[in-house]
Amino acid sequence: MWDWKYVFEILPQLLSALKMTVWVTLCAFVVALIIGLLLAFAARSKFKPLSLITQGIIEFIRNTPLLVQVFFLYYSLPLLTGISIPAFYAGVIGLGLHYSTYLSEVYRSGIEGVPKGQWEAATALNYTKSQTWRSIILPQAVPPIIPVLGNYLIVMFKETPILCAITLVEMMLTAKNIVSQSFRAFEPYTLVGILFLIISYIASLLVQRLEKRLNLQRGK
C-alpha cells in the first residue's frame, strides 16, 4: 500500500537526483546542438569524401543502440585507450553524440528551407562563406526549427534513465538504491515516473508556447 510517510522520506533524495538528471540533459543537449550543426555542415560539403563519411557516421550512430554507445564510452574505451571517462562525461558525450545525428537532420531541413534567393543575395553582396552562414542563412534557418529542437530536448530528458547502467546517479539509479535498502519498490518508481511526467509536461507546454510565439512573429 502507498505510504505517505515513506514518500516524504525518500522525496528529497529523488529531487536531488532530479537536479543531476536535468543537468546531464542540458549538457548533452548543448553537445548535440554543436555536433549536430557540424555534421549538417559536413554532410552538405561539396567535397564528396567528407560528405559520404559524415553520412556513414550518422547512419552508424543512429542504427546503434544508445545503451551500447554509452557502454562503449564508459567500459570499453578505457580498455582500448587507457583513458577513463567519469560516468557524467560518458553520459553527456554518449547522449549528446547520439542525438546530434538527429539534430543534424533538423538543421538540414531548416537550411534547405531558406529561399535560394538569399544565397544569391549573399553572392551579389560579395559575402564570404562564413559571413553568408553567420549573417544570412543561420539566422533564417534556426528560428523555424526551435520547436523541433525543444521536442528533442524533452526526448533526451526521458532517455536519461539509460545512464544508470554506467552508475550515473540520476533519478532511476537513486530509486534503485532506495529499493535495495528498503525493499519497497512501489513508491520510489512511481515517484520517478511522476517527476518525469511533470518535468516533461511543463517542458512540452513551454515548447508549444514558444512555437506559437514564433508562428505569430513569422505571420507579421
UniProtKB/TrEMBL annotation:
Transmembrane segments: 20-43, 72-99, 191-210
BP terms from Gene Ontology: amino acid transport
Domain ABC transmembrane type-1: 18-207
A GO molecular-function annotation: transmembrane transporter activity
Topology of this chain in the membrane: Multi-pass membrane protein
Keyword Transmembrane recorded: yes
Protein location: Cell membrane
CDD domains: TM_PBP2
Sorted UniProt keywords: Amino-acid transport, Cell membrane, Membrane, Transmembrane, Transmembrane helix, Transport
Species: Paenibacillus lautus
Taxonomic superkingdom: Bacteria
Presence of the UniProt keyword Methyltransferase in the record: no
GO cellular component: ATP-binding cassette (ABC) transporter complex
Entry protein name: Ectoine/hydroxyectoine ABC transporter permease subunit EhuD
Similarity comment text for this entry: Belongs to the binding-protein-dependent transport system permease family.
